[in-house]
Amino acid sequence: MPKRCRDHRDSDLPQKRIRTRNDTGPIDRLSRLSNELLLHILSFLPVSSLNVCQRLSHRFHALGGDSEIWKRQYYSQWVRPRARRLANIRRTTLPAKTDYSPKVATWFDHGHLAQEGNWKRQYRLRHNWSKGLCRVTEVEFPQPPCSPTLVRFCAGVVFTADSAHGLRAWTTRDSACCLARIPLSAPSKSSMIPTALAVSQIQDKIEISVGLEDGHFSLFVLNLQTSQLDLQSSHVGSSDAAITAMALSLPYLMVVSQHKDLTLYNLRPGSHQAGETEIFEPRQVASLKADNIVAPMTLSLRVSSFEIVATIVYSFFHIGCGWSLGIQELRLGKDGQQLDSRLATTVDSQYGLRPLQSRKRRHSAESVDTQPPITPGAPSILHQQPPTSMSYSHPYLLTSHADNTLTMYLVVSTSDSLFVQGGRRLWGHTSSVSAVQVTNRGKAVSVSSRGDEIRIWELETAISSLGRKFFEENGVQLNAENKEPGRIYHDLGSVNVQELTLPIGFDEERVLLLREKTGTQLLECYDFT
């Protein structure tokens, strides 16, 4: 058989190297080194090179994944730049203690990671958050009830409440698995319609408060070790109107009813031990009556060792700058005695003015009456429509709007004053924003009304740039690598946008959405790990 003619394309292939007897090949000098020396060498490599090293051999896989190396990488990438940024804000020099220290407790605002053992995982988690990289899983709920489903997220557990299925707990590790469920009412009674839901964790238990349409509220307890969900007690509220909002920070519960009554309860009067489950009759600590509150609104409850700070944020119309926010703060002692009641608005921030309390501190030597009056010009932040949602987690206050934007404020609350500063518009969404949530660390998530655009924000950077141009106004769009494009809605012309408003919740590892589409309810979990 004649030989195959040599193809001209074969000349492009590398020639096979012929080994000779004296050819020893490249010398492997690294494998002879001790693990201590190799770890020292690897500590100087960038992240991309560390990932390559882990693919070389089993030994290098273990060395390249050393937790101390990734701990240093985490510090260099996330902790030290933040310390530099804060030093620039305060116009101070970077203190020497910002040099790397293996003691996480000395890292500013990172004490919650002191027990972290897998620093490569923590680095990957933080990196994925910064890029919006995640994977999504969907769980379809049973036939949705007529009343809306309420959703809250706490300690890796999703709680849902509705009139048909009662209170249910789902784990995010296996979102298709329902951990526990319990009816909201006895079988002999008619079904109750839940209208508000709040959760709070103490040690290995999560306490859940469910507000009902008839003004009653019930307290449940989920044991995280046994996954046992029990009814703890049921109580009659101060009003027979439906409960519209709740905030829970044990042992205190704040409730707002449809009659615009705000009531603060102590759920365990006489008890001083955290996690104590003995049943007490709630004691009313304080109450407020509002003439009118326009939805949306948000509640905040902060409990310290010596006082309770209850806050309600609501919207109102201002002739000069359109829709603004009012903040009512109630400070009480642990004995229930009212210490102070204060009110602040975002009007000054919308005009770009420094709050009066801030001006007082700058001009403390002169009387306020002698200061020249400040005449506001046109507002820099003008809203012709009320916000679509709002979220307040001290000190961050964030609102979403139908004009595709968010507005961020910084709430300053001291022992003698309450004021708002730092009004800033955040751009990036391409359609109306329907839901927003922020944490006290400045991390926020926003969702468009169509549900097809989810963005994550680092508001600490925005606060750092007050008075200067902010280069990260667009946030980061969440990008699920395993989600097919265009799955949400191809034609929204006949869809009622109000039915697509999505409650959201998130923690350090996940973002959760409850999506309603074509009569079906889906719990979507976006995992960044």
TrEMBL record:
Which Pfam families does the UniProt entry name for this protein?
Answer: Beta-prop_pof12, F-box-like
Cited Gene3D superfamilies: 1.20.1280.50, YVTN repeat-like/Quinoprotein amine dehydrogenase
Domain F-box, by residue range, is 27-73
Q: Which InterPro entries match?
A: F-box-like_dom_sf, F-box_dom, WD40/YVTN_repeat-like_dom_sf, WD40_repeat_dom_sf, WD40_rpt
Q: What is the lineage of its organism?
A: Eukaryota, Fungi, Dikarya, Ascomycota, Pezizomycotina
Q: Which family does it belong to?
A: Belongs to the WD repeat MET30/SCONB/SCON-2 family.
Describe, as the record does, how this protein assembles with itself and its partners.
Answer: Component of the SCF(sconB) E3 ubiquitin ligase complex.
Q: Which UniProt keywords apply?
A: WD repeat
- Where are WD repeat segments found? 426-461
Region annotation (Disordered) ranges: 1-25, 354-380
Supply the PROSITE patterns for this chain: FBOX (PS50181), WD_REPEATS_2 (PS50082), WD_REPEATS_REGION (PS50294)
Q: What is this protein called?
A: Probable E3 ubiquitin ligase complex SCF subunit sconB
The protein's job, in short, is:
Component of the SCF(sconB) E3 ubiquitin ligase complex involved in the regulation of sulfur metabolite repression, probably by mediating the inactivation or degradation of the metR transcription factor.
